[in-house]
Amino acid sequence: MGEAGTSAHAPAHVPVLLDEVLDVFAPLDGKLIVDGTFGAGGYSGAFLEAGARVIGLDRDPGVMPFVHRLKERFGDRLTFVNGVFSRLDEIVLSLDGAPVDGVVLDIGVSSMQLDDGARGFSFREEGPLDMRMGSDGESAAQMLARLTERELSDILFAFGEEKAARRIARAIVAARQETPIDTTGRLARLIEGVLGRKPGGRHPATRSFQALRIAVNGEMNELVRGLFAAERLLPEGGWLAVVTFHSLEDRIVKRFFDLEKRQGAVSRHAPARDVTGKSWVNVHKPRRPGRDEILRNPRARSATLRYAQRGAGQPRPFSVGGLGVPGSSLRGVA
Ligand SMILES: C[S@@+](CC[C@H](N)C(=O)[O-])C[C@H]1O[C@@H](n2cnc3c(N)ncnc32)[C@H](O)[C@@H]1O
Prior knowledge:
This protein is 40% helix and 10% strand. It is an alpha/beta fold. It has 2 domains: 18-112 and 219-310, Vaccinia Virus protein VP39 (Rossmann fold); 135-215, DNA polymerase, domain 1. The chain has a 7-stranded mixed sheet with strand order 3-2-1-4-5-7-6, sandwiched between helices. The protein is globular, with a radius of gyration of 21 Å. The two termini are 25 Å apart. The chain binds S-adenosylmethionine (SAM). The site of S-adenosylmethionine (SAM) has 22 residues, from helix 2 and strand 2. S-adenosylmethionine (SAM) binds at residues 13, 15, 36-37, 39-43, 57-60, 63, 84-86, 106, 108, 110, 133, 222.
């Protein structure tokens, strides 16, 4: 993995909804914040600037140049761990990091990952069909070679909401019998061949690339586990802020914070619920970027920030039930 983000071809990631995220944790001076998706360090840098200590995590070792840059300025106030946020509670406790005041997750790919053709995330950049954010596990090319037509179709439908999932899966299986589908260009052209291309419309491979990326990185599983890990780690009063980029993920975060409310809405004759025992309180309305931010950074346009404060309730046991997780029946790929 190269020095992602340091070349002219891969400009640093522009942090999305930064002011809104800072607002959640303000005032930051003296606080300890866990940034579960360090990326280019946009959020972490702003927290440090405002006087906080930060534990940053990222599964992508390619973020190290950004870590070094912030370490030069802020020294020991920043600790970085190359790891996944689904384990953020274990990681922070092993560092003797608790108590923590806040956790932030900015889900998805960074601009450095998307714009670097060699990472294989984008149908716009020719490159190997890799799509791994970390350096382990199966690549997208290996997944396309291994899965059955049915499994491929389920992934495209569940994680890309691709209506033509079956037709695309059938074409992938037919094409891989001739030569492996191991470049972004080959997959993009294959999908274009199946769906055609409307002038001025989105590239027909957009949904399929999203779906494959989610499957390769187990992103739904990571998100749900990350939310529960934050619930276990945060003491009463701590804040969790989550930025997502598509409706499938946003629905999971919304339901995670709302679950108790929805489960509690049983009957008006039922005994009053003990509100002090809630896992989450002060669940805020979602915040979305304004027109100015979208003009400055078009990648912000689909972002949603949700945040809430940890209540006094015991951490709930991990469960995907009621969260609307797509493809939760896809064993081994979700
Ligand atoms: C959208 S970027 C974050 C950008 C960051 N907020 C900033 O301001 O620079 C998402 C980052 O999260 C990382 N990431 C995605 N899923 C992860 C996971 N499950 N665990 C740890 N890091 C993850 C990606 O590698 C990527 O660097």
